[in-house]
């Protein structure tokens, strides 16, 4: 019998794909999949970001911690100054790196990293004599910023978006037949915080559900809610997530 997986994540920012790449991978692994868009992003301070983007010579690099940060730059300028192509670009994970290339024409280092701590290690291997420009969200955990600053690298951080629960979240969950899902996958701590109270309010008994996280920070958020995490993806990639979900059903 096919196991059904319910994914809680933001709508994909990668406009090149018409179908969610994580859903595709799980379906290829014979899972039934449905996605709930748990959070939405409201962009801000794009005028401030635009001004900074006109001064590429003042920076040793530009750092993207999420696809939304890339999208903010794309929203802030019609065309990115070509000089940025000569400035080192760093991005957490494959999705963010791919978007930096498709939207901005930037070749990012760090596609193999799965979290901010790992990316900071990559950045610190470079000779950075000037600050790095770093668009961030309101819920940024400052992992990269703190690591860089503690190693003498200046960071010019600009808050470019705010994360909020999706306006249709409760209505969407109310329409779901939760009992038919064998596993729930969460992609961010904010997704956990916004959706779990609603899920528990509507469906108090979740004892048979396998909980899977996309990474360690999301795993921590699930644990803080008193849940048992059956598996955590080794990297934030479709293949690693499919492996994690599969392993959750073996345990």
How are the secondary structure elements laid out?
Elements: E1 4-9, H1 21-28, E2 32-37, E3 39-43, H2 46-53, E4 61-64, H3 67-76, E5 89-91, H4 93-104, E6 108-109, H5 116-123, E7 132-137, H6 143-150, E8 155-165, H7 169-175, E9 183-186, H8 189-202, E10 210-213, H9 216-224, E11 229-232, H10 238-250
Parallel strand pairs: 1-2, 1-9, 4-5, 4-7, 5-6, 7-8, 9-10, 10-11
Antiparallel strand pairs: 3-8
Helix pairs in contact: 1-10, 2-3, 3-4, 5-6, 7-8, 8-9
If you compute it from the alpha carbons, what radius of gyration comes out, rounded to the nearest whole angstrom?
Answer: 19 Å
Look at the helices and sheets and give the structural class: alpha/beta
The CATH architecture designation of the domain at 46-163 is: 3-Layer(aba) Sandwich
Q: What is the number of beta strands?
A: 11
Instruction: Give the % helix.
Output: 25-40%
Question: How would you sum up the global shape?
Answer: elongated
Low-confidence stretches: none
| Approximate strand percentage | 15-25%
Query: Reading side by side through the largest sheet, how are the strands ordered?
Result: 3-8-7-4-5-6
Task: Write the CATH fold name of the domain at 46-163.
Answer: Rossmann fold
Order of helices and strands: EHEEHEHEHEHEHEHEHEHEH
Taking the sheet with the most strands, its summary is:
6 strands, mixed
Highest CATH level, the class of the domain at 46-163: Alpha Beta
Mean pLDDT: 93
GO molecular function, one term: uroporphyrinogen-III synthase activity
Enzyme class: lyase
Keywords: Heme biosynthesis, Lyase, Porphyrin biosynthesis
Catalytic activity: hydroxymethylbilane = uroporphyrinogen III + H2O
């Amino acid at each position: 019998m096919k196991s059904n997986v319910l994914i809680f994540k933001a709508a994909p920012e990668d406009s090149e794909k018409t179908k969610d790449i994580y859903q595709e991978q799980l379906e290829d692994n014979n899972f039934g999949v449905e996605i709930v868009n748990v959070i939405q992003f409201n962009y801000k301070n794009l005028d401030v970001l635009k001004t900074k983007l006109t001064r590429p010579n003042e920076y040793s690099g530009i750092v993207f911690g999420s696809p939304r940060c890339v999208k903010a730059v794309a929203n802030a300028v019609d065309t990115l100054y070509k000089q940025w192509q000569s400035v080192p670009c760093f991005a957490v994970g494959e999705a963010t790196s791919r978007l930096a290339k498709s939207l901005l024409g930037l070749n990012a280092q760090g596609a193999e990293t799965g979290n901010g701590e790992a990316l900071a290690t990559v950045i610190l291997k470079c000779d950075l004599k000037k600050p790095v420009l770093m668009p961030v969200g309101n819920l940024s955990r400052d992992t990269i910023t703190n690591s860089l600053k503690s190693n003498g690298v200046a960071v010019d951080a600009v808050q470019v978006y705010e994360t909020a629960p999706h306006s249709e979240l409760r209505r969407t969950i109310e329409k779901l037949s939760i009992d038919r899902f064998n596993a729930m996958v969460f992609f961010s701590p904010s997704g956990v915080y916004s959706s779990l109270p609603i899920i528990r309010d509507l469906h108090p008994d979740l004892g048979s559900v396998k909980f899977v996280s996309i990474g360690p920070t999301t795993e921590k958020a699930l644990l803080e809610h008193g849940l048992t995490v059956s598996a955590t993806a080794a990297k934030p990639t479709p293949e690693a997530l499919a492996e994690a979900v599969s392993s959750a059903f073996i345990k």
